[in-house]
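Section: protein folds

Sequence with per-residue tokens
===
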Amino acid sequence: MPDSLDLAPLWLTARLAAVTTLLLLFLGVPLAAWIAHSRSRLKPLVQTLVSMPLVLPPSVLGFYLLLTLSPQNALGRWLEQAFDLRLVFTFEGLVVGSVLYSLPFMVQPVQAALANLPASLREAAWTLGKSRWQTLWQVELPTIRPALLAGTVMAFAHTVGEFGLVLMIGGNIPDETRVASIAIYNEVEVHDYPVAHAYSLILFVFSFAVVFLLHWLNRRDGKDAA
């Protein structure tokens, strides 16, 4: 590895991915359950909003988040005055943007798995006196463990690879918002290809390991279920 390689962007990337994935587990799983079982007229609208990051350029989402959360506008000014919280060009802002951008990677696999469970499974749990929340956490989620694992791994890996959105809302501040993907861009800009290669190779190996682990765990679960 080059002596000039700064590990701070890698640690910041790992921290951002871990916090984002944890928040997505708490927010995305209940949302996926609601979409899977709801008959509300709002369901198509919610599904569309959740899926938008899959087709929307990251820079577009980042641009609108930058405008919305800026202290120059109502929401950003209110957050700063009421909670002393500034989200633009801060790590907290990166977390907000990453949660929104990685939301479909957590919600869609969990939603699809929950929708495919037989209704009799939930009805049996309700007959035994379990509430809807108890049925979700104690019966349904353990049954769809491979889909939950896939959503967790993909949300984490997707956050690691973000570029356009984090550059828009976070900028390029060392030790604060400069994640690995932005560090690679910086090194290429100054023609320091050995360092850019080191960052890229680490992310490549990490991404391969994550996807391989996901397939291995799914294969093992398939054998266990057989």
The chain is about 80% helix and 0% strand. The chain has a mean pLDDT of 89. The longest helix spans residues 193-225.
